[in-house]
Amino acid sequence: MHPEAAALVAALGLQPLPVEGGHFAETWRDDNGSAIYYLIAAPDFSGMHRLTHPEVFAYHAGAPARMLLLHPDGRVERPVLGPNPVAGHRPQVAVPAHTWQATETTGAWSLLGTFMAPPYHDDIVEFGRTEDLATRYPAHAERIRRLCRR
């Protein structure tokens, strides 16, 4: 892991995120919502998954992060979370419920934050299966294969 990423893991008390990948720490939770810090350090990535609730991502530091969003209606988006909107980066990305999502850093590491309302619980996540998603979104099959863990 890059030394700056390792320093962030220690400073923010981040823990490995099982199955999805990356490191996280919950920063807030109540009955209405939850928030986390989320670090992706190359070569790791956020594996393809979907949630039954919407999730809002915010860029905090490091390299921009490239997302792949596969919507239920067949649309595909590839937003880049980052610090420079003039260069096409978005400082915040909202991922609708039931949208397949994966994220990878474009450099050594990316520090992001996410917010969910209602709050996150383990029973609201489903992890993508490579061939199912590659068949449904064939134009993006190569990237799907790289970003799925199943």
UniProtKB/TrEMBL annotation:
Coiled coil: none annotated. InterPro entries: Cupin_DUF985, RmlC-like_jellyroll, RmlC_Cupin_sf, YML079W-like. It comes from the Bacteria. Transmembrane segments: none annotated. Residues 7-123 form the DUF985 domain. This is DUF985 domain-containing protein. The lineage of its organism: Bacteria, Bacillati, Actinomycetota, Actinomycetes, Pseudonocardiales.
